[in-house]
Write a structure and sequence with these properties.
The complex is a heterotrimer.
Chain A: E1 36-42, H1 49-68, E2 77-83, H2 88-100, E3 104-109, H3 113-126, E4 130-131, E5 147-148, H4 154-168, E6 173-179, H5 182-197, E7 201-208, H6 216-224, E8 229-233, H7 236-248, E9 255-257, H8 264-270, E10 278-281, H9 290-303, H10 309-328, H11 332-341, E11 345-347, E12 351-353, E13 355-356, E14 361-362, E15 368-373, E16 376-379
Parallel strand pairs in A: 1-2, 1-3, 3-4, 4-5, 6-7, 6-8, 8-9
Antiparallel strand pairs in A: 10-15, 11-12, 13-14, 15-16
Helix pairs in contact in A: 1-10, 2-3, 4-5, 7-8, 10-11
Chain B: H1 2-32, H2 39-57, H3 61-84, H4 93-114, E1 129-132, E2 135-138, H5 139-161, H6 163-173, H7 175-180, H8 185-211, H9 218-233, H10 238-259, H11 264-278, H12 310-326, H13 330-355, H14 364-380, H15 385-404, H16 412-432, H17 434-437, E3 450-451, E4 454-455, H18 459-482, H19 484-494, H20 496-501, H21 506-532, H22 542-555, H23 560-576, H24 584-598
Antiparallel strand pairs in B: 1-2, 3-4
Helix pairs in contact in B: 1-5, 1-8, 1-9, 1-10, 2-3, 2-4, 2-8, 2-9, 3-8, 4-24, 5-6, 5-8, 6-8, 9-10, 9-11, 10-11, 11-16, 12-18, 13-18, 13-21, 13-22, 13-23, 14-15, 14-16, 14-21, 15-21, 19-21, 22-23
Chain C: E1 8-19, E2 22-33, E3 37-41, H1 48-55, E4 63-68, E5 71-72, H2 78-84, E6 86-88, H3 101-108, H4 128-138, H5 141-159, H6 178-191, E7 196-200, H7 208-223, E8 227-231, H8 235-241, E9 244-249, E10 252-257, H9 259-263, H10 266-274, H11 276-282
Parallel strand pairs in C: 3-8, 3-9, 6-7, 7-8
Antiparallel strand pairs in C: 1-2, 1-4, 4-5, 9-10
Classes of the chains: A alpha/beta, B mainly alpha, C alpha/beta.
Chain lengths: 387, 607, 292
């Protein structure tokens, strides 16, 4: 029935490592023999089903590459995807299934924080790495030393958004509209703190429910707070709705949106109302980095569409796991230790990814400031818009 | 004060949208005495019909409207013919549950066909806007209002001046009498479903165009808001539904103005519960009506329960206890552990909904209260885990009973809607009471299960612990049912008026049953929180409430063994049918429908 | 509050109930002495059942008072009236469909369960449900003995109906024949140990043999000294059983007296003739509401 949240966590399009990132010596022809398996726990049905499908595309693209280039020391890499509907009651059963399956060397997922974190005690007890690559919840990796994530931390992203809004665009009185979920709430808290440190005043914060469609009265409240700029901590679907209703209410405010809105869907749903919205992304189609260009080209060739955030996240993760296994081995313990050791894995999200051994997260995500112009995301070259 | 003008205007605009939904629901209730939980699904189908017409065939607006209405009306006919008419003469709960099953099936079909991704639903002419106050009104706002009023006007004329309309009204007032007077009640039902579903589809289309946004998941919210609006206005009362919708829109808008956006739905549901408790016939009921509910025990399907001898139950419990020794597969143990935890929720609901007849649609709230209670007691106050779980049961019993107590005077569907609303209120309070619950961020680092300081850190020990809890509580429930309370509670369910006439104070015994049931639910939630180590306001969501109800119906209302069997099946079968992946929910909805149709008393029968 | 010195058990004064523009019960006065058998007759729609409902707390009067053993019981809820010893049956029969015959009768005895339902003064009364729960679960010997005693009594009551119900003690009430359901209802009422028994058309839908059997039973109850108010359409039965007959029409009492006096009262004949047609249609039982 009701939607679990469509948690377009950091819709930031993630990056990928291009082929060029592979060690040239690994080009030894297709992998053969008994595959090495990763377990994936994620939604294939239910309200979040679309994200599981996007993961698969990213994984498969990466696996084509990895296995085409000799796999893991000659053995192919593969994954077993179990549908959890992103429901904690099912993700714990899936966790037990993976834990008991001796072929599984590490687990990827789940999608939402409640589903992932409910399963964490099981993975921790069994000492099987749970790699929650979309779990930005600040407590996810605190579940134990087998919980790892390369999801972009809000502690990284939101200060960048604040700097964009305050320092670059010159906003001084900011109103914040945020999704009232664990992600939205965490992001808002960090953004507010950073924006204040940058010298701006926060004149209003409004949290809304994920299935909210009507923002008219919220907009009146925002307008009455007399902000000179608006921050949206939203997914693309809500951001489009909000932008349209701002336009209808005749409220014209410079607007920065979290990188989660970076999706062609924002343009489709928002139409001319999203024109002029500022956002950030980990990469963008005109990105000059060769690995980004390569990823987009190959993705389009395989799936006949533009890659989005989750495609890239999944891709990045699979490449990272392959690298860890090549360096440190393919048993459960080796992967845990390998994640500690691995350094500078080429990544489009992070440029180069290295884990902080204390937080078991990666910091230093790439960021580029964008603006919607003529119905396209383009790099923002300008200066302050609020004077 | 121009802002207040804006809030008022916004309230009316959104109320206008609710009205389109509420009118259809009111019509159906008026004739079929049924709260149609599939109405939101029809709304979604209407939106997608319009989407296909516009994007594939480039239809102009009037034609698009016609197509959506026609598709909706047709769907209404199908729902009436195949979903509801076969249930005539069944217990009153059957059609209500059938509409829930139909909504599952329809939503799932839409999701499989169109993907869960949102789509844009563009409309060509309707971007024009007029300045009013400091905001604007769009042409589409006016069109929605016009269609709302026009459909109400047409309905009024139809009901008032046509022969069919007379028949509809006669049927609404007294179905049996109308039938005796030669009114073809089936034809009336068909007509009403077609009209109401056509309207529902139209509202989906217009709302989709209004927001330039449609997705299959918007069905539940639409049903919820429509139901709230029409209950506030008075069920089955078309002008009341419109007035109730406007009032709901205004209350939400002023609620946002005064307290902020995150309190919006809280106001809607508090309004609903207040109206239900204070004026169950709705604020705009024109006259005092007797509640349109069965006067005698027709809400639960009567049946002869399958009697399972005591010895066999003991033997089954022993087999379950020995299982980890024979089959130490952690996946099987985990699945069964889940089933035992659901079994606790099932025990709880089978007592409340089955034995005493309070069909609760907000049962997850009790698990949530238990989960938060045990988590917070152990984290904040250092209460030992076993004690914290026990306290969670008691706290859930106390809070749950207090919250529902004012609603005990409601019957049948009304009580179900009140519990649905109370469930949502609990979830929204958890979301907003940040100093206690950490709001949306949730509670992490909940200590693992332990009893008497011994940590239960193996799959087996957790399995045994949950099984033992289930067995103890099930045994207690058997004992309760075997006492004088068992027959008293069932008497309240079967005929509350006769029960009162024999000295049974309804509130006392409903509260007693609710407290005992909530205790088991609170225990289930408490254990769950320690197993998961992390919970937030979504962990115990309304899907869980529906699942718990399905468990109870599958097993047989009031049937203790049935609740446990139901939970083993409903937790186990989806695991067995993992292969069916995308179609699992669809199959689940169909099974629910078939069960209601062919075995309404459940597998083991009503006790 | 003055205790009446007379043997008046029930005293109704000016009882009135209006539904919209219709006055269903218009200022009724009614008395019943201890041990008396009074029948209320009248055409369909005369307000007989509404009167019963007002007297048993299922409906609230717009005006008037009801006194029982001298105490004002107007507007008391039905559960309080049951505790005072007023038992009633229902026009269309309201057995507990999923309960067994035995359980139906035991529910009738609910107010007489004293051990398992401790009554404490306020504020301890708030805890009494918990005590009841604890006693039901622990079942100390006294509670078990009470249950056993009540079951024996119930069995005795059911044996009044001969072999009609005894072989069906465990059958759920919905599975019984129409006549047997009416018998269960009367058994349930007797289990309350009533001071006043109010029977609303106890033989509706019964054939002649069954009616005669029921009439015999009600006659026995009368002879045992029980005070009885009866609503009935079968005039033969009324005439044979009643000490006094009250005739109602359109909400008012139009005659009140010995059976034979009433039988010959022109107003009564007029009322019955005037309504003959609707009465005939109504004579058939309407059991649908009571069961599935």
């Amino acid at each position: 029935m009701p939607a679990l949240h469509r948690r377009l966590l950091l819709g930031a399009t993630a990056a990928l490592i291009g082929l060029s990132a592979m060690p040239a010596g690994a080009q030894t022809g297709p992998a053969k023999g008994e595959p090495i398996y990763l377990g994936v726990s994620g939604p294939l049905t239910g309200p979040n089903a679309q994200y599981g499908a996007q993961w698969k595309q990213g994984f498969d693209l990466a696996l084509d590459e990895i296995n085409g280039a000799g796999g893991i020391k000659g053995r192919p890499l593969a994954y077993i995807f179990e549908d959890s509907q992103s429901d904690p009651r099912q993700s714990v059963a899936v966790a037990q299934k993976f834990v008991a399956d001796k072929r599984i060397v590490a687990e990827l997922g789940d999608f939402s924080s409640p589903a992932s974190m409910a399963a964490s005690p099981i993975y921790q007890r069994a000492k099987l790495v749970q790699f929650g690559f979309t779990n930005s919840h600040p407590d996810f990796t605190k579940g134990g030393d087998y919980m790892w994530s390369n999801s972009v931390s809000q502690a990284d992203e939101q200060p960048l958004s604040a700097a964009f809004a305050v320092k670059r665009l010159g906003m001084k009185r900011i109103a914040v509209l945020h999704l009232n979920t664990d992600w939205g709430r965490t992001s808002k808290d960090i953004f507010v703190k950073a924006a204040k440190e940058d010298g701006a005043e926060i004149v209003a914060t409004e949290g809304y429910m994920p299935d909210e469609k009507d923002f008219r009265s919220t907009i009146v409240r925002i307008r009455d707070a007399k902000p000179d700029g608006l921050m949206l901590i939203s997914y693309y679907s809500d951001a489009a709705l909000i932008a349209r209703q701002l336009q209808q209410a005749g409220v014209k405010l410079p607007t920065v949106a979290a990188s989660s809105v970076y999706s062609p869907k924002l343009l489709e749903l928002g139409g001319d109302a999203v024109e002029g919205i500022f956002t950030a992304s980990r990469y963008f189609p005109e990105d000059p980095r060769p690995q980004v260009r390569d990823f987009i080209t190959r993705f389009k060739k395989k799936y006949a569409k533009e890659p989005d955030a989750f495609n890239a996240y999944a891709y990045d993760t699979m490449v990272l796991m392959a690298q860890v296994m090549r360096e440190s081995g393919t048993d459960r313990k080796a992967i845990h230790d390998g994640l500690l050791k691995v350094k500078d894995v080429p990544s489009v999200i992070f440029g180069k990814a290295t884990f902080d051994p204390n937080t078991r997260r990666v910091s230093g995500a790439m960021s580029v400031d964008l603006v919607v112009k003529n119905g396209r995301f383009t790099v923002y070259e300008g200066g302050p818009v609020v004077h | 004060m121009s802002s207040w003008f804006d809030y008022t205007l916004n309230g009316i605009i959104i109320g206008n949208i609710y009205a389109l939904l509420a009118v259809g629901l009111a019509l159906i209730f008026g004739v079929a005495r049924l709260i149609n939980f599939a109405h939101g699904s029809v709304y979604v189908v209407g939106a997608y019909a319009g989407f296909v017409a516009v994007t594939q065939f480039g239809t102009p607006l009037p034609l698009t409207i016609l197509i959506a209405v026609a598709v909706g009306a047709l769907l209404g006919l199908v729902i009436e013919r195949f979903g509801l008419r076969p249930l005539q003469g069944y217990a009153h709960i059957a059609p209500l549950l059938a509409t829930i099953g139909i909504s599952f099936v329809l939503d799932q079909i839409m999701q499989l066909t169109f993907s869960p991704d949102p789509r844009a639903l563009p409309s060509e002419l309707l971007q024009q806007r007029f300045q009013v106050g400091s905001g604007t009104i769009g042409a589409l706002d006016l069109l929605i209002a016009a269609i709302g009023l026009a459909s109400a006007g047409l309905l009024y004329a139809f009901l008032r001046y046509t022969k069919l309309g007379w028949a509809v009204r006669a049927t609404a007032q007294d179905r049996d009498a109308a039938q005796q007077m030669g009114v073809n009640v089936d034809a009336i039902n068909r007509t009403v479903f077609a009209i109401a579903s056509g309207l529902g589809a139209l509202s989906g289309l217009l709302v989709g165009m209004y927001y330039n946004y449609i997705d299959p998941a918007m069905s539940f919210q639409a049903t919820l808001k429509g139901v709230v609006a029409q209950v506030v206005g008075g069920v089955g009362n078309v002008p009341g539904a419109i007035a109730g919708s406007l009032l709901l829109g205004l209350v939400e808008s002023y609620g946002i103005a005064l307290f902020g956006t995150s309190y919006r739905n809280l106001f809607a549901f508090v309004l609903l519960v207040a109206v239900l408790v204070l004026k169950p016939n709705g604020l705009f009921a024109s006259r005092r009506q007797t509640p349109p509910e069965p006067m005698t025990g027709t809400f639960i399907a009567p049946s002869k329960p399958i009697h399972i001898p005591y010895r066999i139950l003991v033997a089954l419990a022993l087999v379950a206890a020995l299982l980890p020794a024979v089959l130490p597969d952690p996946y099987v143990l985990q699945t069964l552990t889940n089933a035992w935890l659901y079994g606790l929720a099932g025990l709880s609901l089978t007592l409340i909904a089955g034995t005493v007849g309070l069909i609760s649609l907000g049962h997850a709230a009790l698990l949530a209260i238990g989960g938060y209670a045990s988590a917070l007691l152990s984290i904040n106050l250092g209460v030992p885990i076993g004690l914290s779980i026990l306290s969670a049961g008691l706290i859930a019993a106390a809070i749950g009973t207090l919250l529902v107590f004012p609603s005990f005077r409601l019957r049948g569907h009304y009580l179900s809607i009140a519990t649905l609303a109370i469930g949502e209120i609990v979830s929204l309070v958890i979301l907003n009471w940040e100093s206690l619950t950490r709001g949306p961020i949730g509670i992490s680092g909940i200590p693992p299960l332990s009893i008497f300081g011994i940590e239960l850190d193996t799959d087996r020990s957790i399995y045994w612990f949950t099984l033992a809890t289930l067995v103890v509580l099930a045994a207690l429930q058997f004992r309760l049912l075997g006492s004088h309370l068992g027959r008293v509670l069932r008497a309240v369910r079967d005929d509350d008026i006769a029960a009162r006439s024999y000295g049974i104070g309804l509130n006392r015994y409903k509260a007693l049953a609710f407290a005992v049931g909530s205790f088991a639910a609170g225990i289930s939630g408490g254990i769950t929180s320690h197993l998961y180590s992390y919970i937030n306001h979504e962990t115990f969501n309304s899907q869980l409430s529906i699942l718990a109800l399905t468990i109870v119906i599958l097993g047989g209302m009031g049937n203790v063994a049935g609740a446990i069997l139901g939970s083993v099946l409903l937790v186990g079968l989806p695991e067995v049918f993992r292969i069916a992946a995308e179609y699992r929910v669809l199959i689940y909805g169909l099974v629910l429908l078939l069960l209601i149709r062919f075995r309404p008393q459940g597998l083991l029968g009503t006790v | 509050m003055s205790r009446l010195s007379s043997a008046s058990l029930l005293e109704v004064r000016g009882l009135t109930r209006r539904f919209g523009g219709l006055t269903a019960v218009a200022g009724i006065d009614l008395d019943l002495a201890e041990g008396e058998f009074v029948s209320i007759i009248g055409p369909n729609g005369a307000g007989k059942t509404t009167l019963f409902n007002l007297m048993t707390g299922l409906d609230d009067p717009d005006a008037g008072t009801v006194r029982f053993r001298g105490d004002d019981i107007t507007r008391l809820p039905p559960e309080r009236l049951a505790a005072l010893g007023i038992a009633r049956t229902f026009q269309h029969g309201r057995v507990f469909a999923n309960l067994s015959v035995m359980d139906n009768v035991l529910v009738g005895a609910h107010v007489r369960f004293r051990t398992v339902r401790p009554t404490w003064p306020f504020p301890f009364s708030l805890l009494s449900p918990l005590a009841e729960l604890a006693l039901a679960l622990i079942r100390p010997r006294s509670v078990a003995a009470e249950e056993k005693r009540m079951r024996e009594e119930a069995l005795k009551i059911l044996s009044r109906f001969g072999e009609r119900l005894l072989p069906r003690l465990d059958h759920p009430a919905y599975s019984l024949s129409y006549a047997n359901r009416r018998r269960v209802e009367i058994g349930r009422a007797l289990a309350l140990g009533p001071r006043l028994l109010m029977l609303d058309e106890p033989t509706a839908g019964m054939n002649q043999t069954e009616t005669a059997e029921m009439q015999g039973l009600i006659g026995d109850l009368k002879r045992s000294g029980l005070s009885i108010l009866l609503i009935e359409h079968k005039l033969d039965m009324v005439m044979q059983l009643s000490d006094r007959v009250v005739v109602m029409d359109e909400g008012s009492v139009i005659a009140n007296g010995k059976p034979n006096d009433v039988r010959n009262d022109p107003a009564v004949i007029e009322a019955y003739l005037g309504h003959r047609r609707s009465d005939a249609a109504e004579a058939s039982p309407m059991p649908q509401e009571a069961v599935e």
